[in-house]
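Hi team,

As requested, here is the filled-out complex form for the GMT run. I kept the field names the same as last time so the parser does not choke. Let me know if anything looks off before we queue the next batch.

— J.
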Amino acid sequence: MKDRLKIGITCYPTLGGSGVVATELGKLLAEKGHEVHFITHSMPFRLGRFHKNIFFHEVEVSDYYVFRYPPYDLALANKISQVAKTEGLNLLHVHYAIPHAVCALLAKQMVGDHLKVVTTLHGTDITVLAADQSLSNLIGYAINHSDAVTAVSQDLIRETVTRLDITRPIDRIYNFFDKRVFYPRDVQSLRKEFASPDEKILLHMSNFRPVKRVTDVVDIFAKVNAEIPSRLVFVGEGPDLIRVMEKVKDLGLTNRVCFCGKQDDVAELLSLSDVLLLPSEKESFGLVALEAMACGVPTVGSLAGGIPELVQDGVTGFLSPIGDTTAMAEQVIRLFKDEHLYQQMSQACIERADHHFNYEKIGKEYEKIYYRVLGRPFPEEEDCHDSICYT
Ligand code: GMT
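And here is what came back:
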């Protein structure tokens, strides 16, 4: 490819949507011909197969006896500077202001101003940490001093400029999905393992943090199941898992609910479900709703954060005020009772995902920012060699 870049990526490699976005973006940039260096404390969990343009540099943290806390942040900054120098990186794309953007800025000071820093905000650094006085100034500093900053929704930009003293523009770049992975899969036989043909399947996938309001999922399911025979599938685990399990038991729903735990290959599970439940209290984007959408599965959820920018109420799902489990259950029942509406919505999901959130479109938005901060023209016309060609 013309003007190939050398890009360092730092993210939380084992956690949630931000790690998925960072890893999938790195993989796809590598397919396009860029050289991608992951600089993380462990191998990103979605990295998958070997690719000649992808390199992994492990951050090792010393636990020297005088340290009260192992200095991960300093080890990361040091590692980034080493990799940037030895590999001749053009830029660092870091996910989360804290600590990754701060570490990247420190590395940049060590390496030189030619190394550019692009920071992507995913949510928690703003919606939770920006209110923490012990970190807020540093978050603002990291945002104001990065060469470019992106956020995964307009709502997150609004939150960022409201909560912090921000003196620079922030680009909105939505999350994306890979259409070679997320599409309506033929999962008839797998579906039989979860439900009989006359039953519907509701699915929730998250890290079970309190902001996900997973007990609301159980309330919604109980109401739906009282009217339409259904099954509930949970994917993931986290702090509220035990509470949710207890609630399921207390409501006598144990034999209708499946707890699958953490799963790597989620496209099949999404494809076998009829509706995704996302009743979060905070959600800067909701990557899982996009992945479900790409599989033709509508979302019923809350009017929180960036969810309405992704899920169009009444078109690709239904949204209600946070905590209104009665309305959410009614909407699921309405969808399940009206086959025509369901099919229409499912089709609208596939089209919307493909049109607005496909990698080709979103990947290009990130690449344009990379070339912009480097002061180089964006090479519009790519020969297809070494790049992704969707047919
Ligand atoms: O949802 C989580 O708790 C995980 C979190 C993360 O750090 O990975 O997800 C955030 O980033 C995702 C990717 O941009 C977004 O799709 C999620 O909406 C966002 N989560 C929250 O805002 C709670």
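Two things worth flagging: The radius of gyration is 22 Å. The chain is about 40% helix and 15% strand.

Thanks,
J.
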